[in-house]
Write a structure and sequence with these properties.
heterodimer; A: 245 residues; 2 domains; two-stranded antiparallel ribbon; 12 helices; B: 186 residues; mainly alpha; 69% helix; elongated
Chain lengths: 245, 186
């Protein structure tokens, strides 16, 4: 008689096996499998008994109070997402055309480029613009890393799309890192420096990664905790951004 | 009539913070339970809930309106928990409740509850801590949230086979770690 494997017993416990009746029949006849299944049930029953605090009725209110001042404004393109998909493309096309016209007119009638002094005249506005840009940049970097960290493939995986995004992100990163170093924000500069090295490695890796190479990359991301650092920095930037409004 | 999540999300995408607040009210409690089971710590769970809603607000534009908002939010919370666990910045497991807003579920002292003494609780918490971040997340989604393995793989953004093996490894590790504890309880 073929015994049920532990994997089959686990699937049986969760009701996800292919042939529940056959498993039940076998368990009725086989002492060894029944003993193993009993041990599995008891262990999972104990895990079930771990208490979980039950949030009270006012918990949602508490969460809202904590986040409401950190929500960056959703303006500008928000309405576009409320449109049906074909209209979204039409709206995007119209916006792009408007941008081209505006760029042309700006070049034609506004020949003097904005001097750095003009930005410095309103340091708070300058800081706000920088914070918005850095927040957006961190979010895009995070997306690339999350996609690679969660990618699974039985064979080699094509990461050329992520590499293209990494190349773009590296050039942006240099600008923000140098600005942070210039303004004496060592903590931000350090995270950006780490992020830049990771992005550079991704950009220069082979465009197809074997499962082993992918796992190595994943382990590196885990070991360096870069995703968490970006998340924390992103939250701080969003908070600062909220305060400058 | 109560609005569906989908209708509220449409408003939130337009920048309506009150609509987003309605989503927070609807989903924060189940999200806390999920985060607590993943992190084993009240403070970390609260951080995960907060960060998940902030990420959700920022990424609303990417949400596919044909999908379930709850599942999408679970996916974000799972990724936040994974990031936190992998960062090594997670606080140690703590099943003692400090916040008065949070209370352990009450109930008669059933034999199971009585048996769940501090020591047993500690052993189970330790066994859960032995799981890798990915195994723990997959196990919590399958075991506590009752998701089918295919749905777990969708939430974790991996192949069903990878989710299945993570659940297998988690259950095997838990069974072996807790065997001495439960072997007499037949």
């Amino acid at each position: 008689m073929n015994h049920l494997s532990e994997e089959q017993l686990i699937l049986h416990y969760y009701g996800e096996e292919d042939d529940a009746l056959a498993a039940e029949r076998h368990l009725g006849e086989c002492d060894d499998c029944r003993a193993l299944y009993g041990s599995l049930q008891r262990a999972l029953n104990v895990v079930d008994s771990l208490p979980v605090p039950e949030p009270g009725a006012e918990y949602a209110e508490q969460v809202w109070k904590r986040i409401e001042h950190q929500l960056p404004a959703r303006r500008g393109v928000g309405w576009v997402w409320a449109l049906p998909a074909p209209w979204r493309w039409a709206a995007a096309g119209a916006a792009f055309a408007a941008l081209l016209v505006a760029a042309f007119l700006a070049g034609r009638f506004y020949p003097h480029p904005r001097q750095p002094a003009q930005l410095a005249a309103d340091p708070q506005a300058g800081e706000r613009i920088l914070l918005v840009a850095v927040g957006d940049y961190l979010e895009r970097s995070q997306m690339v890393l999350i996609e690679l960290a969660n990618a699974r493939s039985p064979g080699s995986l094509d990461i050329s799309a992520e590499q293209e995004r990494a190349v773009d992100l590296v050039s942006e990163n240099r600008l923000y890192r140098q600005t942070a170093a210039h303004t004496g924000d060592a903590a931000v500069a350090s995270v950006l420096d780490e992020l830049e090295r990771v992005l550079l490695d991704i950009a220069h890796a082979p465009s197809r990664l074997s499962p082993a190479e992918l796992e190595k990359l994943r382990q590196r991301l885990e070991a360096e905790g870069i995703l968490f650092k970006i998340r924390v920095l992103g939250s701080n930037v969003r908070n600062q951004e909220g305060r400058t409004l | 009539m109560e609005l569906t999540d989908s209708a509220i999300v449409t408003k939130a995408r337009l920048g309506d913070a009150d609509a987003f607040r309605a989503l927070v009210e609807r989903h924060s409690r189940p999200l806390f339970r999920l985060a607590f089971r993943m992190t084993g710590n009240q403070h970390d769970a609260e951080d995960v809930v907060q960060e998940s809603f902030l990420r959700a607000w920022r990424q609303l534009g990417r949400f596919d309106e044909r999908a379930s908002f709850g599942t999408w939010l679970y996916r974000i919370a799972s990724n936040c928990s994974l990031d936190l666990m992998r960062s090594g910045k997670r606080r140690s497991a703590d099943y003692q409740v400090e916040d008065p807003v949070l209370a352990l579920p009450s109930g008669d002292p059933t034999p199971e509850r009585v048996a769940m003494s501090g020591e047993v609780r500690e052993r189970v918490a330790e066994a859960m801590d032995e799981l890798s971040a990915f195994e723990r997340t997959a196990f919590v989604l399958r075991h506590f949230e009752g998701m089918r393995i295919e749905d777990v793989s969708r939430v974790l953004g991996c192949q069903p086979g990878a989710a299945k093996h993570s659940v297998f490894r988690a259950v095997q590790k838990l069974r072996r770690a807790l065997e001495p504890l439960v072997s007499g309880a037949r």
